[in-house]
Structure prediction request, 290 residues.
Amino acid sequence: MNKTIWLARLLYSHTGGLTRQEIRDKWREQDDMGRPMASSTFYDNCNYLESRYGLHVRREGNRYRLECLSASEENVLRHMFGDMAADLGQDNRPAGAEWLPLMAEAIDGNSVLRMTYAPCGKAPYETDFAPYFMRRIQGRHYVVGRSSRHSSVRTFAADRIDSLVMMAQKFRRPTGITPEGWFAHSYGAYGGYDLEPVHVVADVLTQDLAAYLRGRPLHPSQSLTPAAGGSGAAARLELDIAPTRDFTGALLSFGGNLRVTQPESLRRQIAGEVRAMNRLYAENDNSTGL
Prediction:
């Protein structure tokens, strides 16, 4: 029996949490030899839940519980670890959630998966996939592992998977590839050890956006400090991050409430996108006579 999945199912089914002794005793009931779960095994599997699946075991006093950070995460946990025949309607199920239980089993068992994947705007393809860990990022679920088609480690979106079959083949988990390292310089799902961070500085021009960024930082490296006098800004934003496409998209989504000042390459890129959008809408207005 897989101890990590067993522990997740157990904690999920006891929303009030369990003490370590209760968990040890419940494992004894399941173990063929009637042995309690060793303390080191318990802590190892709590760490596996966080490092491999992004699930957090929270201690409250002497009780441990599986922490849900949002309603959508609750839906995912219900599908992975709860009663799959329960009232989890299709409309409420996160996209790609049907693949999560098999993915979790393969991650814990070091089993290779044969996956049919359909990238956005491209033809589907098949690859043999060694999954290392899963992460939920901005409402979508991703799995990181080695793809035989690409001969490299890649990030795949669960909602782009067309089919998934567990193979008899096992893989050896490499040392040195961790979720923290893979996404260290990422804003979202773009990850990898080849991502190079840059020091980004921007003027936050409204108090509303400053308050939003305090409550929802763009990256762990983010700092938000008072703006220099005379700058006209509400705050100064700084962070060290890779300027990936999803990050520049996030900056553009703030519109005229944020102004990038450094690095110059990123400032020019954002300015170019804004000019292109202005031309697009100007042409539209002219064609409609507005």
About this structure: The longest strand covers residues 125-137. The two ends are 68 Å apart (CA to CA). The first helix runs from residue 3 to 13. The mean pLDDT is 85.
